[in-house]
Design brief:
This protein is of the alpha/beta class and 288 residues long. It contains twelve helices and twelve strands.
Length: 288
């Protein structure tokens, strides 16, 4: 049985879809009943509503598990403490394998949410568990946030330069790769940078979107203060806002480039999804 902790987000949902398609026995720890209902609609039989901050809840969900997959929530100030609790509980339960979804370039100390993941990677190494770490690049699906403005205004706003080169991955590819890792022991024991086959600026992405929509879409540099006002309205924490701003500054100055998709191709057994193919699929999903 595979236990997934942190299953309701951008990584967890495609992973669960892939695992349920393969009739994998799953148990999911989730924080609320609405999430549990959604997970059951995806085919998950066993969901447990609990608190990630509770030693007892984390311990209980792991009973009888062979593998643990931990996907941390984004921009949480206590991310390392939660992750440490999950790793320590897995040690106590003597699970066979631990899969951790980290981040591309966790070595970036100025990006606090990346640095916390690197600290957990270190803790995982010192745990003596059999582990696998995946470090995915930026998600193609992130454009969901901007999609309404793309459709209504013909603009694709991001809070950094539209010229910055970015490597992006389709989360469907990521979910499939993680499912392969969890189910195939040959992939255990590695740390894998997972990224797509293309490095594109948002100007180039907007050009592809324009061609597929049949109308002009322009990538624009969104003022960071405008984004901060939006984040405050959405009740982001000070920690989350600070680290997101730092991330955008890094993207503005350096981008998120120089990825190599060879590892992802090897795990998938096929080429990574191209950005144009993703956009075609995304547009179709929005029209159904």
């Amino acid at each position: 049985m595979i236990v997934i902790i942190g299953a309701s987000g951008a990584v967890g949902i495609p992973l669960i879809k892939e695992l349920t398609r393969r009739d994998t026995r799953l148990r999911i720890l989730t924080s609320n009943s609405a999430s549990a209902t959604n997970l059951k609609s995806l085919g998950v039989i066993e969901t447990i509503i609990g608190d990630f901050h509770s030693d007892e809840d984390v311990k209980n969900v792991m009973k009888g598990a062979s593998s643990i997959c931990y996907i941390p929530a984004r921009f949480r100030e206590d991310e390392f403490e939660i992750g440490k609790r999950v790793v320590d509980s897995a040690c106590n339960e003597q699970v066979e394998h631990f899969c951790f979804c980290s981040a591309y370039h966790p070595q970036m100390e100025q990006l606090g949410h990346h640095w916390q993941k690197l600290k957990l990677e270190e803790h995982l190494i010192n745990s003596d568990l059999m582990y696998t770490v995946v470090q995915p690049s930026m998600f193609m699906q992130n454009l969901r946030v901007e999609w309404p403005r793309i459709i209504k205004e013909g603009t694709y706003p991001r809070p950094y330069s539209p010229e910055s080169q970015m490597n992006v991955i389709d989360t469907d590819d990521l979910g499939e790769a993680m499912a392969n890792i969890l189910l195939d022991h040959r992939f255990w024991g590695g740390t894998y940078e997972l990224c797509g086959s293309e490095t594109l600026s948002h100007n180039e992405m907007a050009g592809i979107i324009s061609e597929e929509l049949g109308g002009k879409v322009e990538a624009v540099h969104r003022d960071i203060e405008d984004w901060k006002a939006w984040a405050i309205e959405k009740e982001w924490t000070d920690y989350a806002i600070r680290n997101y701003v730092n991330m955008c500054r890094h993207y503005n100055d350096h981008g998120y480039k120089y990825g190599n998709d060879l590892i992802l191709q090897t795990i998938l057994g096929r080429p990574a999804t191209k950005y144009r193919s993703f956009i075609k699929k995304f547009i179709e999903s929005q029209s159904t």
